[in-house]
User: Which sequence fits this backbone?
């Protein structure tokens, strides 16, 4: 009862914050009502002072009128940071996005003045870059896998190695997705060793397909065995079941020359005789969030006809950005065009040079240190690339990191050895000067 009497009036709260915000009065009133109702119900959560109440209201109002999605500089050293939006887009993809923002012929055949097909825009460029007969694109790879299973295996059996019944992250688990699709999971082999004959022995008239899943975010070592793609293709063909390969990231480029563990390329999987591959648009492809389903024409047509296709279809912005990204592979300019490949192919010497040039302008105690970047984003687990960072030792590195997070653009680093680290490999070279300016501004502010 005592606390209830201390509730401020809506009028008083609104009058206090209106001079501090550009938000319309109606927004201030609506948010004040919600907060006061909340405090009435949970008096313990009511701030102690009127100023603190106004601050809370101001935050709530700001969330409505200011964009919550803000530009950040990824200085974490994780190339594909899922929490920071994974692959940064190429300049060509950004231009394509902007050009597609207005009216476009997404489902319009300009030559004939008639209705067109949304999927045709990407088909040729995916055919050309992967060697697939046909392809469709959906919102993300999780959707690609779900749609593929629903269209090809609903009410039937899907054979999966126990080593492939994995959790990808964000709650995406292969056994759950199979159940959702209406297919029955038939697990074969063991966690560490599965043979081609395990798959063959499990095939029944109820079998729709065999599903391979890339072990994206972990690595198994030691007493392990997996059948080769060629062996699995032979089993699938002999028993006339389909073979679906969920490649996760998938790559169109061989990563071995950059000192990374060899990954099967998308085109290798298709060339080996896999019927359908699924992969993400925003991992090692380096494009927008998307899921690509590529493979045999007849099977892709079946998947495209499934009613869920309409719910999962990509928008024009995704189509535009993905087309521009894949175009770079067709043009053989991926290394120069696509940021993720610029990051992977940057030599440690080049990164050291940038780090030195940046550090030379910085106040003490900033200096450069050797470090290792990781790929992240469910690609190449455990693999690292030698890199260089600008580093600031600090008694409270968390507080220092928080200051850089508040900066606009936010700069997100990594804390290790009582210091804040900004890994130069994941910072776009055009942002080096932005980082330098921020360090100078925040050093002045805190010094
Ligand atoms: C990343 C990943 C997914 C999910 O892809 P999204 O594009 O993030 O939806 C599914 N399967 C595997 C093996 C993955 O690595």
Assistant:
């Amino acid at each position: 009862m005592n606390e209830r009497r201390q509730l401020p009036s809506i009028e008083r709260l609104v009058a206090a914050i209106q001079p501090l915000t550009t938000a319309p009065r109606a927004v201030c009133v609506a948010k004040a009502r919600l907060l006061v109702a909340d405090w009435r119900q949970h008096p313990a959560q009511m701030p102690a002072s009127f100023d603190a109440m106004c601050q809370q209201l101001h935050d709530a109002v700001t969330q409505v009128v200011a964009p919550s999605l803000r530009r950040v500089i990824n200085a974490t050293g994780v190339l594909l940071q899922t929490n920071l939006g994974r692959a940064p887009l190429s300049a060509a993809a950004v231009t394509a996005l902007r050009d597609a923002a207005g009216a476009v012929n997404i489902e319009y055949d300009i030559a004939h003045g008639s209705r067109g097909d949304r999927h045709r825009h990407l088909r040729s460029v995916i055919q050309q870059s992967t060697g697939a007969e046909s392809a469709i694109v959906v919102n993300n790879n999780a959707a690609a896998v779900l749609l593929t299973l629903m269209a090809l295996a609903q009410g039937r059996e899907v054979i999966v190695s126990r080593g492939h019944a994995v959790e990808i992250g964000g709650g995406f688990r292969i056994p759950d997705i199979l159940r959702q699709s209406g297919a029955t999971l038939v697990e074969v082999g063991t966690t560490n060793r599965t043979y081609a004959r395990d798959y063959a022995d499990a095939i029944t008239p109820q079998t729709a397909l065999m599903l391979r899943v890339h072990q994206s975010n972990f690595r198994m070592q030691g007493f392990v065995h997996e059948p080769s793609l060629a062996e699995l293709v032979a089993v699938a063909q002999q028993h006339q079941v389909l073979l679906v390969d969920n490649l996760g990231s998938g790559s169109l480029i061989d990563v071995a020359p950059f000192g990374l563990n060899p990954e099967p390329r998308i085109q290798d999987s298709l060339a080996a005789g896999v019927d359908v591959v699924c992969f993400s648009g925003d991992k090692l492809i380096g494009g927008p969030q998307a899921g690509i389903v590529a493979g045999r024409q007849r099977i892709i047509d079946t998947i495209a006809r499934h009613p869920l296709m309409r719910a999962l279809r990509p928008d024009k912005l995704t189509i535009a950005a993905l087309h521009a990204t894949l175009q770079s592979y067709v043009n053989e300019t991926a290394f120069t065009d696509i940021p993720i490949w610029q990051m992977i192919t940057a030599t440690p010497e080049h990164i050291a040079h940038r780090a030195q040039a940046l550090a030379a302008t910085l106040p003490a105690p900033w200096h450069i240190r050797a470090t290792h970047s990781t790929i992240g984003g469910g690609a190449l687990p455990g693999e690292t690339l030698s890199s260089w960072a600008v580093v600031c030792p600090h008694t409270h590195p968390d507080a220092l990191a928080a200051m850089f997070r508040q900066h606009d653009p936010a700069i997100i680093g990594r804390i290790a050895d009582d210091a804040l680290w900004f890994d130069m490999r994941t910072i776009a070279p055009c942002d080096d000067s932005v980082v330098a300016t921020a360090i100078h501004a925040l050093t002045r502010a805190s010094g």
About this structure: The chain has a mean pLDDT of 94.
